[in-house]
Task: inverse folding
């Protein structure tokens, strides 16, 4: 910001320093006019400064216009979510500690019987599945954790990742669910692997919800 020195008016009383008293009024008038001129000059400089600053700001705004977010139009509106209340939680955890050949489905935990309570209605069964695999020697060795209900995969199994080819380990995980009728059902986790894979520790959480 520009700084201007203060303007001080020192018009002497009755202009005593003038040659004659008859010009005293003229002297005071000249001092007053001198003070007004300084104030005017200061106002002009200040206005020029802010005008130049405004021009610079406009130039910067023109060079970098604001980014507008894209407008997205949904062609398919998903159904509204339904509130569910928890009815029970079951946890299967352990260490499989075995090597399986590739190209097949292997059960990891033991089938567990859980119940959708009530004499009618439905429940949501949710499975949070995590498992560590490794000790592979081939690249592209994909694996998938599958959620089975009553002996049938609920979604056909989706790949969760690939076992490392350098002999190390990786943790894969997925959360999936299905709506079932009231009564007893079995839940279980299977794993599919494309090549020979060592199956290590796992933790599967099965949850029951009712709308």
Result:
């Amino acid at each position: 910001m520009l700084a201007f020195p203060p303007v001080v008016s020192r018009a002497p009383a009755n202009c005593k320093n003038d040659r004659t008293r008859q010009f005293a009024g003229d002297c005071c008038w000249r001092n007053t006019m001198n003070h007004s001129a300084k104030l005017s000059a200061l106002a002009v400089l200040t206005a020029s400064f802010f005008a130049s600053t405004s021009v610079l700001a406009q130039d910067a705004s023109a060079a970098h216009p604001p980014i507008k977010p894209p407008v997205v139009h949904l062609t398919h509106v998903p159904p509204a979510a339904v509130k569910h209340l928890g009815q029970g939680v079951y946890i299967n955890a352990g260490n499989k500690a075995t090597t399986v050949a590739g190209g097949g489905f292997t059960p990891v935990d033991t089938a567990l019987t859980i119940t959708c309570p009530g004499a009618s209605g439905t429940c949501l069964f949710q499975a949070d599945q995590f498992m560590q695999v490794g000790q592979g020697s081939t690249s592209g060795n994909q694996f998938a954790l599958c959620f089975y209900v009553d002996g049938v995969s609920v979604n056909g199994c989706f790949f969760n990742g690939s076992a490392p080819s350098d002999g190390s380990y990786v943790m894969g995980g997925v959360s999936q669910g299905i709506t079932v009728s009231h009564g007893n059902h079995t839940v279980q986790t299977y794993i599919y692997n494309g090549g020979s894979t060592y199956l290590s520790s796992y933790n599967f959480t099965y949850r029951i919800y009712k709308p």
The chain has one helix and ten strands. The beta strands are 85-100, 104-107, 112-116, 122-134, 141-149, 152-153, 159-163, 169-181, 183-193, 197-210.
